[in-house]
Amino acid sequence: MAKRLFIVLAAFVMLNAAAATIVGGSSKANVADPDVVNAANFVVSSANTNACSGLCAGLKKDGELKLVKVISASTQVVAGVNVHLELLMADDAGKQTVVTSTVWSRPWLAAKNDAANPATQITALTFKPLDGTLE
Q1: Is 16 contained in some domain?
Q2: How many angstroms separate the Cα of 87 from the Cα of each of 6, 77, 126, 128?
Q3: What's the start-to-end Cα distance of the chain, in Å?
Q4: Is 0.85 topped by the overall pTM?
């Protein structure tokens, strides 16, 4: 009887472990999710105004960058939410760049309007200009 109970319990634990997400782990996000779209637009706006805490300093562009599409996205619950993005952007001359970025969002801080501790900020940003077009 104890052996049978152990087998049933072990199977239950294994099935739950397979279906559960790891606490603090990343999970895929829908690229059309409003939080993902807002984070992507935040990256584009920050890149256009050089408000990336120096992370977008070497990003060369002719005119303004525009979001072509969100290639992929994932989220991670931390003290807030990290939105990990892979974005395709193009400048006014049509030059395309793949931008990989992490946006840290803590919406409860928005009301405080504290520039030293903003509710939304870019914590990582890399970019790779494309020779051809991805789209």
Answers
A1: no
A2: 48, 21, 10, 11
A3: 61
A4: no
CB contact at 8 A, 77 and 26? no
Joined together, the tokens standing for residue 135 give 């789209």
How many independent structural domains does the chain possess? 1
Range of the domain at 109: 31-129
45 is written with which tokens?
């706006």
Residue 24 in any domain: the answer is no
Whose tokens are 């996205």? That residue is 73
d(CA 31, CA 24): 20
Give the CATH number, domain containing residue 45. Answer: 3.10.450.10
pLDDT tens per residue across all 135 residues of the chain? 655 544 544 444 444 444 445 667 899 999 999 999 999 999 999 999 999 888 988 888 899 999 999 999 999 999 999 999 999 999 999 999 999 999 999 999 988 888 888 999 999 999 999 986 555
Residue 90: inside a domain, yes or no? yes
